[in-house]
Amino acid sequence: MWSPEREAQVPAGGDPAGLLPPEWEEDEERMSFLFSAFKRSREVNSTDWDSKMGFWAPLVLSHSRRQGVVRLRLRDLQEAFQRKGSVPLGLATVLQDLLRRGELQRESDFMASVDSSWISWGVGVFLLKPLKWTLSNVLGDNKVPAEEVLVALELLKEKAEEVYRLYQNSPLSSHPVVALSELSTLCVGPCPDERTFYLVLLQLQKEKRVTVLEQNGEKIVKFARGPHAKVSPVNDVDVGVYQLMQSEQLLSRKVESLSQEAERCKEEARRACRAGKKQLALRSLKAKQRTEKRIEALHAKLDTVQGILDRIYASQTDQMVFNAYQAGVGALKLSMKDVTVEKAESLVDQIQELCDTQDEVSQTLAGGVTNGLDFDNEELEKELDILLQDTTKEPLDLPDNPHELFYTNSVPIPRISDAELEAELEKLSLSDGGLVPSSKSPKRQLEPTL
Is 17 left (phi over 0), alpha (psi -120 to 50) or beta? Predict the structure, then answer.
């Protein structure tokens, strides 16, 4: 749990080494310029002003994001951005510009912007503004004191979204009402201290996703049912269900404690029996039996409470289903508002009439357009019969040998006998110098010429 001592142990600014721009260690001239103070007005030298602001403003916000803190102070930033013993002289001007642009907001102003009744019990954990801060604001002095706490609004919204998702994915979301102490334990990761936790709750309250109520000295938080739903005020049903849940937890802890006590009595009886102390062993067994009877009675009560809670959860589920059905019926009625059977029949008749008209137009276009030429079908058929008769009267002059069809219109080829072909082949063989014998000449031994 948070405590002032624990928060004092956390380093204020952290060490940004290794997460700074390259010129931080490499460009001495550039860093000397950036560490110098701003001019009184931007009009004096807008280029230098914009260069410094473009360097420090994103660096301050990214430093806050890396550290995971939503609360900033000028003193902490000056310590975090020390370089070779030098402190940036223009950080106060940078914070003023971020305040003007709405990226930062004073913590006290943020608290005052949330209209909720539960903020009164959280005022004690926040720093109250000193009188000089109030006077400076009244007199129009916008300087940022070194100790004043500023809130990074964008990072705070991200933290609020993270806490909401964390709750939705936890067993606590079985019912929208949860104890503040249980929620604080659940959110120790994104909210390392109590001030951040309260700021996150204020942001969720501002977004109308939670509401906080104090019941019998204990603070309870109610969440909205859905990510886009608005939270409803805490009613008697929510309080009753919360009390049942607390009773269930109390009975469970009591049963666990009595079970340990019964086991202890059993061990005492066993040791007494081994030591020969029969009376002491009997007393221990009687105590064990009384404890077990108490456990049985508590189990009966616990079963009753759990049965009631199960019925409540089931009724909530049934209500959600019923609401979904009801919304569906309403949407269907709205969509069918102007639709009747008579209108549907009329629409079908109109469609059929349009289709018939389209068919008539198509037939007219197909039979009426002839490009100015009129043909008589009977004359065309007579001409076709004449052509067929002329074709049948002219016989085709086909050759006896089908293979000679190709040469009917070409030059006639004279016929050559086999003997003439043999003689011609013999001449060709002798013309090669006598080296190649003819297929019909006798074989002889060829003598080489000298």
Answer: beta
Domain ranges for the chain, please list them.
236-364+378-391
Nearest Cα to Cα of residue 171 among 302, 313, 320:
313
**What six digits make up the tokens of 83?**
């370089």
- Fill in the DSSP letter of residue 83: B
> Is the Cα dihedral 160, 166, 169, 174 positive or negative?
negative
For residues 253-277, give the mean pLDDT: 88
* 3-class secondary-structure state, position 124: helix
Residue 7, SS3?
A: helix
- End-to-end Cα spacing for the chain: 129
- Contact between 231 and 208 under an 8 Å Cβ cutoff? The reply is yes
Q: Is 89 helix (H, G, I), strand (E, B) or coil?
A: coil
Residue 445 CB partners (closer than 8 Å, separation 6+): none
Alpha-carbon gap, residue 220 to 245, rounded angstroms: 12
To the nearest 10°, the Cα dihedral for 340, 344, 347, 349? -130
d(CA 77, CA 67) in angstroms, rounded, equals 12
**Tell me: the pLDDT tens digits for 85-107?**
888 998 999 999 999 999 999 98
Q: What is the mean pLDDT of the chain?
A: 75
**Please, which residues have CB within 8 angstroms of residue 86's CB and are 6 or more apart in sequence?**
35
Angular region, 434: left φ>0, alpha ψ -120 to 50, beta rest: left
Neighbour count for residue 221 (Cβ, 10 Å)? 24
Name the DSSP class of 151: E
pTM: 0.57
CA proximity to 197, closest of 1, 399, 427, 380: 1
Beta strands in 258-298 (DSSP E): none
Helix (H, G, I), strand (E, B) or coil at 398: coil
Bigger pLDDT: 349 vs 416: 349
DSSP state, 126? Answer: S
Instruction: Return the CA Rg of the chain.
Output: 52
> 350: burial class by Cβ within 10 Å (0-12, 13-18, 19+)?
exposed
- For residue 42, what are the CA distances in angstroms to 31, 32, 47, 175? 20, 19, 8, 55
Report the SS3 class of residue 256. helix
